[in-house]
User: Fold these one by one.
Assistant:
Number 1:
Amino acid sequence: MRRRLTWATTVLAVVSVGALAGAGSAAAAPREFFGLVPQGKTPPPEDIQRMGRGNVGTVRFLLNWAAVEPQDNQFDFSGLDDYLGDLAAEGIRPLPFVWSVPRFVSNDSLEMPVGSASDREQWQAFLREIVGRYGPGGTYWTTVFPTQHPGEQALPVDTWQIWNEQNAPKHVDKPDPAGYAQLLKISDAAITAEDPSAEIILGGMFGKPTGKGGLKAWSFLKRLYKTKGVKAAFDGVSIHPYSPDVKGIQKQIEKVRKILKKKKDKGADVWITELGWGSKKQGRLGVGKKKQAKLLKQSFKVLKKKRGKWNIGAVIWYTWRDLGNAPCDWCGSAGLFGQNGFDPKPAWNKFIRFTGGS
């Protein structure tokens, strides 16, 4: 396990060395700490420019294997090239979660590609391809990006998230910690073959998923560690601690950290790769515009304060714009902007107070 010297570790180290940096330095979070996960279609360039003005540090996005490689060994990188290039031009770090399988591997897109040697080889070959293109020194950054964005600085992918909500039946055929451990191990081998310094984090897990076969995040994590050698295959854990209140978020993080401590893996980061509430009073987490803004402020304040103690890698808000067809009863209004993208909500104003944007 690489356990890179993350910004959280750096802060703790600086504080321990005689407090050479002042309290203000210890309290400051880097730009990449606060981010967004847009839902639905790729945001247009004007949206990404708006994110840039807001000083958004990270954008988490779906890297859909089936969309990039619809047929065996036939790749379409055009959409990804444009997206990552636009993000880099605004100083926004990309955080992909790699998910789904193409039909030439399985007719079931939710089946983790670990069932056969052929499936595993195909998955690893795809990972090597995308890391070789978008990782440090990747072919996109050295050949395409300079022509698309002359003079701009490349921001390669340095962290890869494997699958999404693997403890919930909505995003995987059957939550299976042992099968997921196998996926992590082969992903680690493929990714680090191209980029030895890459950071690998688990797919974001619901704290308490619904549906048949769903496993609580801490239960899934506990069972994951039963697979020999899996600890060396990842650097961080990711959760989606949705809750009606901030106390519920804290409890979920503490339960995950308890498992990490018990498994002697306290150095693992905990990434909050989805967090949010709806601005309409409908659904389980629909709270209205004022309370949405209040809960964003409260949760971000706590997570920023606890980032060293809990080893928080990032806090990523769900979502950017409101949605037309939403995947849940409240998340259609979870955006920081209305559906047209022009109307910032009070929650956006709270968000940019943490990022220093406008």
Number 2:
Amino acid sequence: MFKIGEALVGKGNEVAHIDLILGDKNGIVGQAFALGLTILSKGHTPLISVMRPNLPAKPFTLVVPKVSIESMEDAEKIFGPAQAAVAKAVADAVEEGIIPKDKIDEWVIIASVFIHPNAKDYRKIYHYNYSATKLALKRALQDYPSYDKIMFEKDRAVHPIMGFRVPRLPRWNAPYLQVALDIPDLERTKFIIQQLPKSDKLILEAGTPLIKKYGTKVLNDIKAIVKDAFVIADLKTLDVGQVEVDIAYEEGADGVVASGLAATDVLDKFIYEAKRLGIYAIVDMMNVQDPIEKLSSLTELPDIVVLHRAIDIEKKEEIRWEFIGKIKKKFPKLMVAVAGGITPETAPIALREGADIIIVGRHITQAKDIERTAREFLRLLGTDIDQNRVHVE
């Protein structure tokens, strides 16, 4: 048997983070236990957890410090409250039935323990490490987290130290509003971004004119204002697809756009490279007569396809709404975006046809009240991911 558990409990310098493995004494965990106890690493001396000197808990538990022990003060924290906390948590886990009583001489545990060098309060060190160890044991023996838990949380989660959500576009959260930042004026663009409401439904697009004037480095300027925004680089790539993906990726792009007019080989390389790097590949079908035929010619599909009516012909040409349903029927895994003069009046049409993303430029960016206008569209899209949500384990 080989089980893995993890838990973080507490706050401040005394915060506890436990990683542990639990398994048979005669298996790979037992081997790791023996090696850990006999092959020492400077600053990370392992020790058997005891509730007091000469009274270890069972299953025998090896405490391994994560942070280098640099002084006797550091050593006292590990050999005192942390060691005792882990041992007491193991003993209580047996008493409470978390660990079966008949396994205490068959299993061993290895617990990796974090103690901040600036931790001072021994009571809190004990308190937090006790709770984290018992929770990690419980999780290990319950095979936590389940697949469903991971899938539910992966696009909602925010790592507390990183401080911002990793930007993705989960399909279950569609539809989205993509704001096309097409004005080739960086200061005006920054002002627009600052006026936009915060929303999990919002995508920012560094438009082609903006990128042509400032280069892909403008992506970094956008990210500096909103770290957790999903930012697309509208490159409209026609050639050297792989190279252009790399350039945008290095500047922080979460998605890149190629023109559907590009040769199939160019698009194949563009899509391959974007997916290799873990960012979204987007193909803009502006002036492509048959988007379905073009998509069918590709080795691998992009993540998003854009049905786009050019600005210069908005008054002459209708958006091809019918292609939304046709594309989604033929390629059900594709997300479909629509662009070109979208207004609060036409957006509902796109949404009824099944659009996953509505792309709006001038109607928002040139509005007198940018926030109010953006909210007009956001109200059509449903609630944010975390609205009214209380995070519990």
Number 3:
Amino acid sequence: MFWSIVGFFVIAGAWLLVYSFGYRVDWQTLQISQTGGLYIKTSPKITDVFLDGENTNKKSGLLSTGIFVQDLFPRSYQLKITKEGYFDWSKKVQIEPSLVNNFSHVILLPQSPLKGNIYEATSTIEITDFFPLENKEEILLETKIKNKSGWFGALSLFNNKNATTTEIFRKKITSTESPDLLSGFVLDDSNPNQIIFSDYNRSSGQTIFYLWDRLDPDQTINLSQAASAYNLTKIRKTDFYPFEDGKYIIETSKNIAVLDLNRKEKSFLAAENPLDFTISGGNLFWLDKEGGVYSYNFILKNTSPLAIIESEKIEITNWAVSVNSSSIAVLMKNNELLLIRSGQPVKIISLAAQNFSFSPDNKKLAYQEVNGQVKIYFLEDFNQDINKKLGEEVALDGLTAVASSQISWFKDSYHLIVQGGEKIMFAEIDDRDKFNIFQYQFGSGRYILNGEGVVFRSWGSLLEKINLIISE
């Protein structure tokens, strides 16, 4: 009797030790296996989580940011996450012994997004272009107006909060013309006091640049005319000089100048025959007609050569610098997509690209090829839920839009928003099993996307705001 009791406690103790190391009996196979787990973080937070069709009854709450499902035997499971009024999210997941499989970027989108008109003009006014400012309250509106005097193009600043409109500029146009006042505009910051915009003058055949200041809204300065006093003519592009008021970057076909209207002087950067320039952080980057790529540091005031693009003819469709200024992407007119990083050879990412976008975390480059296929190129090693090495690519199967006009990142750098024609697609980049892609069709019009999951659409005299992300 004594030894039987001792044996019982020995066996029980051994079993408790085994249990403490994560081993369980799989009653389906009658085998003892070390278990694993799942960590799931969803938006919205309150969702139903199913494994192989059974509700886990696990929910996140005010004190917990995610859901932990433990004691899962090593095998594949069908994971499904649902919420009433939202599209389902599902994926086949693999559980490994003693490991936790993370899904910390699960976003469910509503079947019926929040929509609302934020601007409605009269029947004699057509919205031809617009741009929402980052302060989320103001929108630049380009409109085409018909009245008794004829046709006019106008640029206005609309305040959505108090429903007021401030007209910045107006010009006479023909009935077949578009105002085209926002094609070259720039802001002095994300919540601007000043705006530079351009207007093509038909009589002179030149683009005229103007400066508008909200502190003096009734007076618009002809920046091209001011620059001509310093022999800066035939201006192709302008921008604000960072950190200093009254200074502007002026690009002509021959050089890039710095115009200081306060000190009434000009200087030149070491740029000859520039093709284009852009400003990122504390640096100015430019391409020249020989294929040279350079940067100028506004603080140190020095110029650095970055790369040479080897091509018989340097013609570009678009180019951009990543947020941290570590990478440059150049889309050539022959559809080559080039990646430039300081000290490294120019790399051809694609021979058939039509657009691209850097992720906010600077770790990924999304691009779309002419056949509509969307791909992700990893700029560095990535270990957040999915593990990717520098230079790896992921093709987002099921995400195609041949007529796509925009490809944009959601703010988490884990999802893409793609607009093609009348369709908006919201897609994860997690290539474990299938991609979860949510699709909407809102109709024709001009679209602008942002990293908050907000879509703006204009058509005719209406401007609409659509919230794809609805938080609890």
